[in-house]
Write a structure and sequence with these properties.
single chain; alpha/beta; five-stranded parallel sheet; 11 helices; 43% helix
């Protein structure tokens, strides 16, 4: 394994907003359609930052089928005075709503060649696995940790511990990239090094900077 001054042995990547463009792009379009702020539509469709019983959260933990999310959303829309049209989840998950980030995906492959351990840690649904396999090169990942398979979702701490165990490293030997602050915060609480991704194309270069200079 390539030595790193930072002591990092494993680099772990989020999926949405890191390896692909963020799902919030589609949320923004739906917010415009309903005439509400982006933050309101995020709360309605994806739930609050903290993990709970929102239907999206339950589906990501494998407790609810994706097809059942839409019918369970209206109670979350009612406090905001929003009447859902019944096609919001289909629009959110429709094909062509996102693109892969070439720089980040190339970085995963490079790290694997350089003999770093690589991980994919993502909140996702069982039904979405075929799409991920189509869009990512799964052999580039030493381990893949999906919320539905673990029964926990970020930022719940158990999924971070599961990731560390599967990688076979110490928490302090992990560098993690995510675009959501709440997910970064839990990783940091375990002692993981982190990169809060705001521009995936340019943030890919920060990985090398971190590994070589930290």
């Amino acid at each position: 394994m390539m030595p790193s001054p930072s002591g990092i042995r494993a680099v772990v990547f989020d999926f949405g907003g890191v390896l692909i463009t963020t799902i919030t792009n589609q949320v923004g379009a739906l917010a415009t359609t309903h005439g509400v702020p982006m933050t309101t539509m995020l709360q309605i469709l994806l739930g609050p930052h903290e993990s709970g019983q929102h239907p999206w959260h339950r589906a990501e933990r494998g407790e609810l089928a994706v097809a059942a999310i839409q019918d369970a959303l209206q109670p979350w829309a009612d406090p905001h005075g929003v009447e859902l049209r019944g096609n919001e989840i289909d629009a959110l998950l429709s094909g062509g709503g996102y693109t892969t980030i070439p720089e980040m995906n190339a970085k995963v492959a490079q790290l694997k060649r350089d003999r770093y351990l690589t991980g994919l840690l993502t909140n996702t649904f069982a039904e979405f696995r075929p799409t991920m396999e189509r869009d990512l090169h799964f052999p580039d990942f030493t381990t893949v940790v999906e919320s539905f398979a673990v029964g926990r979702r970020k930022p719940e701490p158990q999924i971070y511990e599961a990731t560390r165990e599967l990688l076979g490293v110490e928490h302090e030997e992990i560098l993690y990239l995510d675009d959501f602050a709440q997910n970064i915060a839990t990783a940091q609480s375990f002692g993981w090094s982190t990169i809060h991704v705001t521009d995936p194309g340019s943030d890919a270069a920060r990985i090398d900077e971190f590994l070589l200079t930290s």
